[in-house]
Amino acid sequence: MRGRRGPGALLLLAAGVFAVCWFFTAPQQLGGSTIYASTVGNSMEPLFHKGDLALVRPAAAYRVHEIVLYENHILHRAVLHRIVAIDNGRYYFKGDHNDFVDPGYATRRDLLGALWLRVPLAGNAVTFLGRPSNAGALGAAVVLLLVLGGGGRRRKRRTAVKKALRCIHKPRHPIEDAGTIALLAAAALALAVGFTTPATKAVSVVGAYSQSGAFTYSAPVLHPDPNLSGRASTTGQPIFLSESKTVTVVFRYHFTSRYAHSVRGTIGLGANLSSQSSSWHRMYVVAKARPFTGDDTTIRTTLSLTTLGQLVSALAIVSGSPADAYDAALVPTVRIHGFVNGQAISERFEPTLSFTVNKTLVKPVVDAAGPVAGATSVPASPQALLQAALNPTVAGAIPGRGPRTVSLARTELSVVDLRGVGVGLAGLLLLVLLTRPMRERRHAMSVEQRIASNAGSVVVDVVAFPLEGAPVAVPDFASLVGLARYLERPILRDRETGAFTLADNGQVYVYLPGDATPGRPPAPPRAQAAGKRRLLRWIAPGLAIAVAGGAAVSFTAANVVPLSNAGVSAQALTLSQLAPSQCAGLSLGHLVVATGSNTVGPSGGDLILGRAGTGTYTLKGGAGNDCIVAGGGPGTRNTLDGGGGAGDVCIGAPGALNIFKNCALTY
What we know:
Helices cover 27% and strands 32% of the residues. It is of the alpha+beta class and 667 residues long.
């Protein structure tokens, strides 16, 4: 007999290839070192587009201009951007398509890894396979293809000759039984854990409600300058003590929640004055606390700047520092209690608006962030910080219920998804058991066949013991193949009858297929069916590999590395952020966008935006203090009418003919 090469070399090669692929591409959650991140934004265009998949690996060191995946603690997600500057262990990032630097900075421990490989459009497939329903449906399709793709005698006919004898004369390994038991155990575990664990847990619902305020002040000027547009120093502007004697301070409070709620409380206003050169400080009650009910309330008071100037001068004489300056802060105190979504709340809201005070002026002051090395812009400008101080906001939390998760293969999976996985595995198990009779049944080896196999011999079934010299009929083709391999003889096929014969030392062994009849040609082969079976033979394993690999990557990428919202912000802008800086002192409650030639805002503080086309447009505010911004350019005639408000701000369009009516301030 000729020697045969064993499968050891092939298995060793396959193991080596698998080890190399696993080392470079295995997700961190499965013991590897690669992170998968899908891109859903456009801030890294033209390099990255929506739906691309980034493979990221940790690096020993990171350099400027590298593309790195890092945890952004301001956006609360992983972001894939390019390093633009490194300063004292602080890493600053920017998207290639953005014209601004990412807010905040990252430290070394926030860097997840540098870009290793980009796979175009693969992120869409990862996201698709990350959904349990899609992965389960594809898994069921794989099982159907593997189970129903072949069976019966046709599988015997297309089985390779190398495997025929082994399948008949050696005991079959119980791979299918082991797989069925593993599937049963996995389904039972998923169902037991999923349905014995509560689907929700007690959590803190952050952002269930918010408290916000708006500071405004106005100090009439004793001697207005005709070259200036206003007759008073308004919010955000300095106040000169020689030009103004009083200042009116207003603080508007607003409570908001997406849940049903009912609140009431008290509101008061205080002022804190402290020296910049000593430890002297004093707290003054500007307006006594008073009760209120509902979501909105306002406290208003008028302060004497003359008294403030005299106090500063007296303190300077006592301290012996005539040029001494003081820090002043307006501190409204709001105490509320009530119910939000049936949960009791009791909160205290005390924002602060700071000023610098000396003998000549009172000036609002905020701490501005310094420029970032290598940055193209400063994320937080002094004007933005001032607007944040004038419009403070704080979010609140209430007890609530959230989804409970369980840890599975280093991946957090919700209990609801685990229940779905258990039901899906149980369905697959039922499908396997129901289709088991449809698959080929191989007979176990007898004791005699096992002894013969161990001795290197072969046992061949025959239909009957023939007469001397007569052909020997074998019951199946597999037996004929085993005998041919043992005797090292070729098998001959009669094209006319379809019979298979094997000759050895004058003895002829014959196998007649079911559709073969002596004297009649065999039926034409079913080429189409055979082609389908060959196609299924390639599709089923390929689809199984795709489902397994895609599901592993998608679950690790979706649950541990959040999708990289590159340059996309889901935070809604408030009207105070949308309004121009000239309207910073106004409390705006409605946004009105012009759609025709005449636009009139409702009563209350409105932000009215004009049209950008050419023509004649009229923008008119209501009874409140409005911010009216005209649009257009050359060839446009805008009429801006403040309406009934006393503090309307009207901003004309550059190049257009702008006509102002009833506007306190015009630009």
